[in-house]
Every structure is written in C-alpha cells, then in structure tokens.
Request: fold
Amino acid sequence: MSSYSIAEAARISGLTTHTLRYYERDGLMLRPVERGATGHRRYSDTDLTWIDLVTRLRSTGMPIREVRRYADLVRSGAGNEAERLDLLRGHRSAVLAQLAEVTDHLGAIDRKIGIYVDRLEAQGIGPLTSSALEGVDSSS
Amino acid sequence: MSSYSIAEAARISGLTTHTLRYYERDGLMLRPVERGATGHRRYSDTDLTWIDLVTRLRSTGMPIREVRRYADLVRSGAGNEAERLDLLRGHRSAVLAQLAEVTDHLGAIDRKIGIYVDRLEAQGIGPLTSSALEGVDSSS
DNA sequence: CCTTGACTTCGAGTGCGCTCGAAGGCGGAC
DNA sequence: GTCCGCCTTCGAGCGCACTCGAAGTCAAGG
Reply:
C-alpha cells in the first residue's frame, strides 16, 4: 500500500495542491487525509481512487455540495446504498439531458459553419450579402 | 416584421429581462436594441435570431468574452468570414472534446451504479462489505 | 549554522455570469 | 387624479469554485 505527498497526489490527480486541501476542508473526502510524522498529508491509493471519482462527478457537472452529500452517504457506512444509487442515477439523467442539449446546439452551430464555408467557397463567383450571416439558419 | 417588448423577448428566448439587458450592456448584441417612443426596447426578429445563436454558444460552454469577440467580428461587417469560421470551428472542437470527456466519465459513473445495483440485488443472499464501494471500479 | 524547499494553516481575493434592488418615468384603466 | 404595471438606468451583491498569499514549521544538504 503506497502513500503519496500532496504534490504527488496533485500530479496524479491533475488537481492543484490548493484544490486538494480545499476539497478536504470542504468535506469532499471520506475522512481527513492521514498525516506523516511531520504533519504532512499522506494520500493513500484509496484516497486517490476516491479523488478520481470526485473528479469524474465534478467534470460531469455535479456541484460541490452534491458531491459532499454523496461523500456523507458513503461515510455514514452501509445501509444507504439505495440512496446513493438514487443520487447517482439522478446525476446520470441530468448528464444525459445535458449531452443531448449540447449535441443539439452543436448541430445548429455546425449549420452556421456550413454557411461560412459555402460563402468562402463562393468568393469571386458572386457578390456577398451579409443578411444570412447574422443569425442561425432558419432550419433550426 | 414584428417587434417585441423586453418581456416578450424574455419569454421567447428563455432568458430573463435582466439578462437581456446585461447581454446588451456587455456588447453581446450586434447593435443596441431599438427603442420605441417611450424609450422601451423593441426586439426585432433579427435580434431574437441572434439571441438564439448566442444562447446556443453559451449553452455549449462558450465564455461571454468569446461570444463578444464573435459579435465584434459580425458587427465589423463582411470580409472576416474566415476569422469567424476559425472561431466557430475552434469552439466546435472544444465542444466535441468536452462531449467525449463527459461521456467517458459517465461510463465510469455507470459502472459505479452497476455496483450498487448488484449489491442491492444481493441483499439477504450474502454479507455486505463496503470496500468495493468507496472508489470507482478498477476497470476505469 | 544557514539556506532551500516542501509542507502547514488561515483568511482573503478572483473571475465568471448573472441577479437583484432602488428610484424613477410613462401610459392606460377606473 | 391616482393606481397599476411595465419599463428605464445604475450599481451593488451573490454563488460557485477555486486561487492565492502570508507567515510559519521542519528536514536535509552544503
């Protein structure tokens, strides 16, 4: 079982040391990170695995306070798995909805890109009018 | 050619009146919105179409300042279509990267959900251990 | 012994994107 | 005439998630 300094944990997780301390302060860790003889933090593999999950939840848009709620549930031990499942499933739905929305918006932006491409290809062939370029095309 | 009060524009766009004024103040509109006799804003269809594009750019994560850069380009008229295209294409790439990342993270979260489902289905069949529940599974 | 550098705590500061409230103008219904 | 409702400007405030800096501790290297 290896352990890591906060600088190593930062390098591995991709977070800054400031953020790692901030997460711990803010109750996002399952328990306070262990300390070595000098009072320095020693991150365990379990800590890093947990931080990885936190990062995934954060990167998919879960607010800090909800990550903390989840951490609270895990910390309070066995017996609330159904609640944890609800929380994760709720988040999953939100993420899927967000993916669908972003994909839809991207489609409209793509059509806009198409307009510019057409226009640039047409340069020298016909005169340019700017009216079609101000909004998104009417098919949206 | 119809025109709309700020309240109507808010209802149509899904933004608040506060946000509509804020966008205008912040240089996100192509030009100041027209005013009626009483000094009240009158949004045109062109304005609403533009606001729709702004909303799509914002919803896909484009920062306000970059939307403003794009608005500046459109405002300055014809001749910079290539630059606009670059901006939109750059954004498109960023959005695709973000979609891929979120999808990947979601996969890891899904596996975690699977763990809870298995665990809940196994209730009464075997004893629970909590170790597997603290992190994401090792296949990530 | 002194410097270097990695760490500690604590609290304040930053950037973003709104969000809100105060104070006032104007037009129409009663 | 006065009340209502919608609008105006301006500037301050807020929530989120960091991000940073100051001041101090400690161990090892030269």
